Amino acid sequence: MVTVLPEEFGSRTDGLCAALRMASEIGAGWLVPLDCGSRLARHALAAYGAHLLCRRPDAANAPAPALLYGDEGEIAWLRARPKLWLKPQWDRRMILSQDYVSRACALAVGLALDAAERCNEGGAQGLYELVLRIAENAPVEHVERITALTPDGSWLRDGAVTLAAVRRVMGASADDIVPGPFGTVALQFPLRQPLPTVSVVVATRDRVELLRPCVEGVLYATDYPALDLIIADNDSVDPETLRYMDEVSADPRVSVVRWPHPFNYSAINNFAASHARGEYLCLLNNDIEVIEPDWLSAMMREALQPKVGAVGAKLLYPDRSIQHAGVAIGLGNAAGHAHRGLPEGDPGYFAQAHIARGAGAVTGACLLVAQRHFHAVGGLDEEHLAVAYNDVDLCLKLRERGLTIIYTPAATLIHHESKSRGLDFAPEHLERYMRELEVFQKRWGSEWVVDPWHHQRLNRASEVYRT
After folding, report:
1. Ranges of the chain whose pLDDT falls below 50
2. Which domains does the chain have, with CATH numbers?
3. Other C-beta atoms lying within 10 Å of the C-beta of residue 76
4. Do residues 467 and 84 make contact, with C-beta atoms less than 8 angstroms apart?
């Protein structure tokens, strides 16, 4: 294994090509590139080597990785200990939003040399584009060890290079590629034409003060035209609510279906889904407020990509702090909302709340899924998970079928959380909640499992990522 500083040569790509040729000539199998100002962590090379020697038994017949990447420690002279970036497993969606690989990686020389020479001919500017090119055709694996010590804040300084690389790699396969916050990239996939119809399902009981703004946001403040709205009424008795449902159902896009039974979120939505005409379903809480017209278009851009199971949005509390930026399995030995409480403009943990990426699950408060996928896994579990964890359970069933779950901050809404149904820990709900928690834990092993987008060294008791 050879370690080089590509900046010793002319351009970064020239340096990579020259270094890879040198490594090939001396018979080295792997090369570790380092930026100026970075250095190898203690035992970094041993960590890469051990990973290759000790790959899981179930990976023995899989192709060998072409690229390994590790975690990072950011160093600053005023800070006694490095700030750790403990990274998720390989995520093909996340790498198009953020370069979380190139500052701490090792390249398989043979495959990397071919890709680097193609990149150099195309005018590529650095290692990140090489990572993208390698990952198009070969496996990438994460080494859960600190393998590089990098300068403080270096993760957000190469935004222009990152943006240019994504534009070169994605080309015409994206509608728009623009700078995102904190040196990230905001990429818009194209929408299919004609637009698939989305059936938006809103379950409600009374509370017209919540229902009206939610419905009007969907019908009049959403720019995705191919939608219909199903209001699933769970035994409302308030005259004003009933009158409003009668009024709004005059809109040909709106239908009201009745579920006159005790509250069961899963059953209500499954029932409404059976009446849906759309190719896609959007489960939407009645306490969601639309604040940006393109929320549904942004979710559909992700949902239409190959092998996507469900898509979730960024949900904000009324004070604009984050309520939902994806769900991490295993938090609290069950599942928790990643980055909950983070102020909207705060980068938080390496901007993870602000980029499109994979997720262990997303909340059913705003969840988009193809009808065929929803019904293929039996919808929501109305027998055992009537209220809690049914959305996470749905996502995990989709992942069992080889589908991915995507979180996108390009869709941002306000969530007045639990204004309608109340909190799970209220005394009248606690027994039911504990029963559903036990079902979820036994079914998915959430007391011990590590979410691929979390990390074994991160605190499982905290929705704010910290060691």
Report:
1. 6-10, 419-422
2. 2-173 (3.90.550.10), 198-444 (3.90.550.10)
3. 12
4. yes
